[in-house]
Design goal:
Residues 5-179 form the ArsA/GET3 Anion-transporting ATPase-like domain. It comes from Streptomyces montanisoli. This protein has 321 residues and is an alpha/beta fold. The longest helix has 31 residues, at 257-287. It has helices spanning 15-26, 43-47, 76-88, 92-100, 102-108, 113-127, 147-163, 167-180, 195-210, 230-236, 241-250, 257-287, 303-314, and strands spanning 4-9, 32-37, 58-62, 68-73, 139-143, 185-191, 215-223, 291-295.
Length: 321
C-alpha cells in the first residue's frame, strides 16, 4: 500500500488541484492525510480557501466519512534549522547562522541542499509514529515540482549519500531514499490530452524508471465531454454544407446559409479535438502505466469542485490506496 503519494505534472495541467483532491479522497473513514507543498506558491491554501500555510502542520479540511486533511508548506530555511538542531544540536547557534545569511546561502546556492531538505521533511512525516507506535498519518500527499524536474528532485538524496560516505548527512539521505524507492511511495503524473504534456509525461516516466523510482498512475485532468457521437464526428469531418442547408430550410429557418458556416466550423473543430484526444490516449496506453481521467469542471475550480474531484478519485478505489 502506498503511503507517500508524489504528484507531479507539467505546468498548467492542474497538478496542485489533483494533489489536493487526492488528499481529500484518501482521508476517508477517519483516516488522516497530510498534504505537503514544497514550491512556496501557497496554491493549496488558495484551493481550500484558507489563510497561507505556515511551517507547521495545520488541519484544513474534513473529508467524507470524517477523515482529516492536514497541510504543511515546507520552508527550506526552517527545515535546515530543524536539521541542524536534530543532528548537530546547534540550537541558538543555528539561529545565529541564519542572521549571518549562512542559512539563506545553503538553501539557495548550495547544489541540491534545498531538495534534500524538502524531501527529507516529507519522508519524516511518512515515518512518524505516535506514542502507541501507530503512524501519525495514514497517507502523505506531496504537491511536487513539475515533471521536467521531478526525477532530479526525488533522486538528489541518492547523489548526496554518494558524496557523503559517512555521518548524519549520509544516514539521513539513505533513510530518505529507502522511503522514496520503496513500495510505500508512488509517483503520479498529471497530464492533459494534448501533445506536449503527454510527451512530457512519457519522458518523465522513462526518467523515473531509469532512476528506479516507483511510478504510480497517470491522471488525465480536465477531460472535455464529447458532445457528438462517433457518427456525428465522422459527419463533421466532411463537407455537409448542402445537406445542412436543406435541413435548416425544411425546418422553416430563414436565411439558413448564414448559420451553416459557423455550425460546420464548430463541428469540425470538435471532430479535430476528438481525434487529437484519441491519438494522445493511444500514446498513454503504450507507456504501460494505469491511466485515469478526471472531468473538466465547466463552472471552474472552487471548494465544491475540489470535493467533487475527490469523489471521482475515491470511486477509483484501490488505484490510489
Amino acid at each position: 500500500m502506498s503511503r507517500l503519494h508524489v504528484v507531479s505534472g507539467k505546468g498548467g495541467t492542474g497538478k496542485t488541484t489533483v494533489a489536493a483532491a487526492l488528499a481529500l479522497s484518501l482521508a476517508t473513514e477517519g483516516k488522516r492525510t497530510l498534504l505537503v507543498e514544497v514550491e512556496g506558491r501557497q496554491g493549496i491554501a488558495q484551493l481550500f480557501e484558507t489563510e497561507p500555510l505556515p511551517y507547521e502542520e495545520r488541519k484544513i479540511a474534513v473529508a467524507s466519512g470524517g477523515g482529516d486533511v492536514y497541510a504543511l508548506a515546507i520552508d527550506a530555511e526552517r527545515a535546515l534549522l530543524d536539521y541542524l538542531q536534530m543532528f548537530y544540536k546547534l540550537g541558538s547557534a543555528g539561529r545565529a547562522l541564519k542572521k549571518l545569511g549562512a542559512i539563506d546561502f545553503a538553501t539557495t546556492i548550495a547544489p541540491g541542499v534545498r531538495d534534500v531538505l524538502l524531501t527529507g521533511k516529507a519522508c519524516e512525516a511518512v515515518r512518524r509514529r505516535d506514542r502507541a507506535g501507530r503512524f501519525v498519518y495514514d497517507h502523505v500527499v506531496m504537491d511536487a515540482p513539475p515533471t521536467g524536474r521531478i526525477t532530479r528532485f526525488l533522486n538528489v538524496n541518492y547523489e548526496v549519500a554518494g558524496l557523503a560516505k559517512i555521518g548524519p548527512i549520509h544516514n539521513q539521505a539513505q533513510a530518505v531514499m529507502r522511503v522514496l524507492r520503496s513500495r510505500e511511495t508512488a509517483v503520479h503524473l498529471v497530464t492533459q490530452l494534448e501533445e506536449m504534456p503527454v510527451q512530457e509525461t512519457a519522458d518523465g516516466i522513462a526518467e523515473l524508471r531509469a532512476a528506479e523510482l516507483p511510478v504510480g498512475n497517470v491522471i488525465v485532468n480536465m477531460v472535455r465531454p464529447h458532445v457528438l457521437d462517433e457518427a456525428a464526428v465522422r459527419a463533421a469531418s466532411g463537407d455537409r454544407r448542402k445537406e445542412i442547408t436543406k435541413v435548416l430550410t425544411s425546418a422553416g429557418l430563414a436565411a439558413p446559409t448564414k448559420l451553416v458556416g459557423p455550425l460546420l466550423g464548430q463541428a469540425a473543430e470538435h471532430a479535430q479535438r476528438v481525434e487529437l484526444e484519441r491519438e494522445q490516449r493511444a500514446v498513454l496506453e503504450r507507456i504501460g502505466v494505469p491511466t485515469y481521467e478526471l472531468p473538466l469542471l465547466g463552472e471552474g475550480m472552487d471548494l465544491a469542485g475540489l470535493y467533487g474531484l475527490a469523489r471521482e478519485l475515491r470511486q477509483l478505489g484501490k488505484a490510489f490506496a
